[in-house]
Amino acid sequence: ELMKRSSHLKKVHEDKLKHLDRIEYIAKWVTLARMEDMRDAGVLGRWVEEGLQVLVDESAVLRLCPGWPEKRVDALREANSHHTLLTSLVRAFTTTAVTIEEEEKGLEASVSAAQSVLQSAEQKLNRLAQTRDKEERRYREVGIPFDWSLISKVKRVAAVLGAVILDQVLSELKKKNLSDPSITSSPSIVSAVEFMFRAYQFAGGFSNDSLKKMSLLQQIISDTRPS
What we know:
mainly alpha; 8 helices
């Protein structure tokens, strides 16, 4: 075990000597970099990762390099990870909404797909919310222009997906015999309505158009109930 550790430490020191110029060059540009937006942060982050991938043990080697901007590099990595997370959520909501509209899936399948995306987004945004204040200060201190407005964008596209499900519910009901009160209490309709309320709650409220359609849906449900 001692021999293995000694051999590893030797490789780490050799790596430091071999790649010191590279490390100092990266450190210099990371320290000097001025980022206008997260696209700049993404470019810088990818350049840093490409430059460091040659190291046998990155953390061990960099600990031996005085002046390495560890605080900024760590924040840069985390900011890029959060940016990727949020943009992937926007894409997931958008793709799901488009797929439901284009493929004309049955209501049950549509709601299942929509629920999966919403549940994932709820969990991820909840985790991000727990550390947001700390991360905002951290990114600001090291000059990373994180785009927190992406959270609002995630919520907007969640509302769009909610609207797609709402339209599908109304379309399904138009095809049914509404004299049968069991229609509006079918599991697919109930789960769709539950999803819509959850999606709009996540999004922060109903749009005017969605409010009108929800009122229409509530009227249909009311009219089919036995008096």
